Recover the amino acids of this structure.
C-alpha cells in the first residue's frame, strides 16, 4: 500500500503540527486507532507522522482521511476557522492543489497588512499562479514579494521569491531577465546565502530550460549534468519534481533517451505520492518524447493516458496541451482527419482558459495538415492568424516558428523574395 513520503522543512513544521492536531482530535472523536484509520491505504506509521507534525499530507490523503473520519476535507484543513486560512493555503500549495491555493492567497491578501506576512502570501500566490500557467500574475506577485523581503533584510526569502519571478518570465519568453535572476540566486547561494537546501538545484535546472529554448543545448546539458549529480540530496517528492524538469530539459535539448528515462522515474515517484496531475503531465511529456523518437505507438499510449487523467481531473487548461500533442501524433501516423479533429478540440479547450500556447501550437498543426493536403492558401491563412495571435499575446518564440513556416510556404509557391524577408524577420 502507498505511503507518501514528504520531507518537512523547518518553516513548514507549524503547518504540519496544526494539521496533525486536528487529525488526531478527529480520529479520537471517531473512536479509531491509527492502524484502523490507515487501514486499506496507508500505514500506522504514516498516520503517526501526520499527527506528530512530521509530514504534510497530499490532497489525496486529506480526502481519504476525511472520508474515513466522517468529516470534510475543509474541516480537516481548518478552513472554517479564519485563523487557519494561511495554514490551508500553504497545505493546498504543498499538496499541489494550485487553484485552491491561489484562491486562498487572494482572499488572505485582501486583509493582511503586515509587510512580511504579505510578502509570504505574495510568494505563495506567485508559485500557485506560475504552476497554473499564469505567468504575468506570477511575475507581479513575486517581484513585490522580493522587494518587501529585501527591504526587511530577508535575503533568503527574497531569493525564493525571485525564483518564482524567473519562472514567470520564462513562461513569458523573457529568457534574458529570467536567466539574470537565476544567476543572481546561484551566485548568492555560492557566496554563502543560507537559502532552501534545493534552491540552487532548482535554479540550475531552470537555467538549463532557458538555454534549451534559446538554442544553447551544450550549455543546457552542462547545467543538467551538474544538477543530476546532486539528486540524491532530495526527498522523494522533490526528486520527482526535478526528474520531471530534467525530462523536459533533456527533450528540448534533443537527448530523447535521457528524457524518457527521467520522465519514467518521475512518474514512479509521483504515483507513490498519489499526484495524478503530475503523472498526467509526465505522460504528456513522454508522449512528446516518443513522438520525437518516432516510437509512435508508445507516444499514442502515453497521450491517451494523459487525456484520460486530465479529463478525470477536470483540468481543461492542460487538457488543451494534451489534445495538441494528440494532434501531432495523429499527423505523424498519417491520420490527418484525426489530427484536424484533435487540433480543433485543443483550440476550443484553450480558448476559455487563456492557454494561448496550446491554441497557437494547434493552429500551426492545422497549417501543417493543410500543407500536406496541398491546400497552401489555407495553410498560409491559418499561419498568418496564428502569427497575429502570437504577437498579440507576447509569444516571440511561437511568432518566430510561424514566420519560418510561412517562409517555407512562400518558397514552395515560388515567392523566394518574400520567403527571404520572412526568414530575416524570424531571425531578427
Amino acid at each position: 500500500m502507498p505511503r507518501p513520503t514528504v520531507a518537512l522543512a523547518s518553516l513548514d513544521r507549524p503547518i504540519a503540527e496544526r494539521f496533525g492536531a486536528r487529525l488526531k482530535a478527529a480520529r479520537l472523536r471517531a473512536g479509531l486507532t491509527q492502524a484502523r484509520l490507515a487501514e486499506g491505504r496507508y500505514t500506522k506509521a504514516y498516520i503517526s507522522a501526520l499527527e506528530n507534525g512530521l509530514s504534510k499530507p497530499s490532497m489525496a490523503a486529506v480526502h481519504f482521511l476525511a472520508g474515513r473520519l466522517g468529516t470534510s476535507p475543509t474541516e480537516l484543513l481548518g478552513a472554517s476557522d479564519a485563523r487557519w486560512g494561511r495554514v490551508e493555503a500553504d497545505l493546498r500549495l504543498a499538496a499541489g492543489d494550485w487553484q485552491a491555493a491561489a484562491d486562498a492567497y487572494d482572499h488572505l491578501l485582501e486583509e493582511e497588512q503586515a509587510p512580511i506576512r504579505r510578502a509570504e502570501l505574495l510568494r505563495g500566490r506567485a508559485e500557485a499562479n506560475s504552476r497554473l500557467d499564469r505567468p504575468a500574475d506570477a511575475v507581479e506577485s513575486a517581484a513585490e514579494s522580493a522587494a518587501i523581503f529585501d527591504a526587511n533584510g530577508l535575503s533568503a526569502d527574497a531569493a525564493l521569491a525571485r525564483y518564482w519571478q524567473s519562472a514567470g518570465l520564462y513562461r513569458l519568453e523573457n529568457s534574458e531577465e529570467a536567466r539574470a535572476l537565476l544567476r543572481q540566486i546561484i551566485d548568492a547561494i555560492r557566496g554563502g546565502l543560507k537559502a532552501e537546501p534545493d534552491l540552487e538545484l532548482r535554479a540550475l535546472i531552470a537555467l538549463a530550460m532557458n538555454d534549451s529554448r534559446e538554442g544553447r543545448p551544450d550549455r543546457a546539458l552542462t547545467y543538467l549534468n551538474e544538477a543530476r549529480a546532486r539528486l540524491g540530496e532530495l526527498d522523494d517528492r522533490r526528486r520527482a519534481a526535478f526528474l520531471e524538469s530534467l525530462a523536459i530539459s533533456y527533450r528540448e535539448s534533443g537527448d530523447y533517451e535521457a528524457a524518457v528515462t527521467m520522465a519514467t522515474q518521475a512518474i514512479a515517484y509521483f504515483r507513490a505520492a498519489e499526484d495524478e496531475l503530475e503523472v498526467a503531465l509526465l505522460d504528456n511529456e513522454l508522449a512528446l518524447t516518443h513522438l520525437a523518437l518516432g516510437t509512435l505507438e508508445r507516444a499514442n499510449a502515453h497521450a491517451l493516458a494523459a487525456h484520460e487523467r486530465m479529463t478525470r481531473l477536470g483540468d481543461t487548461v492542460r487538457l488543451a496541451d494534451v489534445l495538441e500533442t494528440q494532434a501531432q501524433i495523429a499527423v505523424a501516423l498519417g491520420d490527418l482527419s484525426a489530427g484536424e479533429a484533435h487540433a480543433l478540440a485543443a483550440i476550443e479547450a484553450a480558448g476559455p482558459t487563456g492557454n494561448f500556447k496550446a491554441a497557437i501550437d494547434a493552429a500551426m498543426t492545422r497549417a501543417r495538415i493543410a500543407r500536406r493536403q496541398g491546400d497552401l492558401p489555407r495553410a498560409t491563412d491559418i499561419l498568418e492568424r496564428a502569427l497575429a495571435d502570437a504577437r498579440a499575446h507576447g509569444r516571440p518564440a511561437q511568432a518566430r516558428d510561424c514566420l519560418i513556416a510561412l517562409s517555407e510556404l512562400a518558397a514552395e509557391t515560388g515567392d523566394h523574395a518574400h520567403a527571404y524577408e520572412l526568414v530575416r524577420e524570424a531571425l531578427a
Observations:
- Confidence is low (pLDDT under 50) at residues 1-11, 80-84.
- The first helix runs from residue 13 to 30.
- DSSP finds 23 helices and no strands in the chain.
